[in-house]
Design goal:
Blueprint (H helix, E strand, L loop, with lengths): L6 H11 L6 H6 L3 E4 L7 E7 L3 E6 H8 L2 H12 L5 H10 L8 H4 L5 E3 L2 E8 L2 E6 L3 H13 L9 E5 L5 H8 L7 E6 L2 H14 L4 E5 L15 E7 L11 H7 L4 E8 L16 H7 L5 H10 L4 E10 L7 E8 L3
Parallel strand pairs: 7-8, 7-10, 8-9, 10-11
Antiparallel strand pairs: 1-3, 2-3, 4-5, 5-6, 11-13, 12-13
């Protein structure tokens, strides 16, 4: 009898992955769950340790799909279980947390922190420059700035807004909350199931049946949920660059479903526009270290050269939550031929 047939181990694995219905046997048969020694192979994440020297590991992409954004989901579920109903209140609660280490002590230590009049002041990027700001205000400023960029693009003539790689959906839900109910449909595309679940909670709290999460793998996207929509605004925030190398097929698949596309993309690529940012805050070396972004803007430029899109704006290092995660703005449009 293998260890994956031992019921206590199977149930512990399901709890760790927050997936009570997971067919562990099928996942093991497909090689998505393995039993290994203390050295977990590349591409897997150790989940359950069985003394003295055995680990049950899960394929990294499956682990991501089942567990990513589970922490904000838990906060939302507790808030609602305790009787909370106010979307803006839970949004404030969520943004006071430091999910995924966005402003972890390790990252803050690299942002030149100092105490000024009793407050912690840190570096943060803004419009291609480094400015000083209170640490507690930095995440709020970042989110407000993103909303100010995006909101004017949500116009009455749109059929839908798609947030690609929406995470737990806070950016999209806040945008939807400030848009008339008669406005476009809002879709949050996310491969992580807890992120999709977060958006479901937000939609219920806002009473918005035009806001929903959809499962979307940006490595192999299926845009059929947009079939019938003629004019769509696509937004992203530090998401598309995780497809490395990035392929124009992403956009070709979208264009085959939606005839008219406008896009407001906020991704780290300032190193790719030396004519605009001779000293980029997000360097090619950092992109290589993270394993992201290396050809994203180059693909977009090739699409424009081929007449498939028209790039209307590029702003390098426009903002960022930390000095290590600055993003640039790219706007384009694609109209029917």
């Amino acid at each position: 009898m293998t260890i994956l047939k031992l019921e206590p181990i199977v149930e512990m694995l399901r709890r760790k992955l927050r997936a009570p219905g997971l067919d562990v046997a099928a996942a093991a048969e497909a090689g998505r769950i393995i039993v290994c020694g203390t050295d977990v192979p590349a591409g897997y994440v150790g989940v359950v340790s069985v003394p003295p020297d055995t680990i049950v590991a899960v394929a990294a992409d499956l682990h991501y799909r089942l567990t990513r954004y589970a922490d904000p989901l838990a906060v939302i579920e507790k808030y609602r279980a305790d009787g909370g109903t106010d979307f803006h209140e839970i949004l404030s609660v969520l943004r006071r947390h430091s999910f995924d280490g966005n402003l972890s002590e390790r990252k803050v230590a690299k942002m030149n922190p100092e105490r000024v009049n009793g407050y912690e002041i840190i570096d943060r990027p803004h419009m291609g420059r480094i400015i000083r700001m209170r640490r507690d205000m930095s995440p709020l400023f970042h989110q407000m700035f993103l909303q100010q960029i995006l909101a004017p693009h949500v116009t009455d003539d749109l059929d839908a807004v798609l947030d690609v790689g929406c995470g737990y959906g806070d950016l999209l839900a806040e945008l939807a909350a400030e848009t008339p109910r008669t406005g476009p449909a809002f879709f949050g595309g996310e491969v992580a199931l807890p992120g999709v679940a977060c958006l479901r909670h937000f939609a219920e709290m806002l009473g918005r049946d035009n806001l929903r999460g959809v499962e979307l793998d940006i490595r192999d996207p299926d845009f059929e949920f947009l079939r019938g929509k003629k004019r769509v605004l696509v937004i992203s925030h530090f998401a598309l660059v995780y497809v490395a190398p990035f392929s124009p097929d992403f956009w070709h698949k979208l264009f085959s479903v939606v005839p008219e596309v406008r896009a407001v993309l906020m991704e780290p690529f300032s190193f790719s526009v030396p004519e605009l940012a001779p000293e980029p805050l997000f360097t090619r070396e950092r992109a290589q270290f993270y394993g992201i972004a290396q050809n994203f803007f180059e693909v977009m430029r090739e699409l424009e050269k081929g007449g498939e899109i028209e790039i209307t704006e590029v702003v390098p290092d426009i903002t960022g939550l930390t000095t290590n995660s600055t993003i640039s703005l790219l706007r384009f449009r694609r109209t029917p031929r």
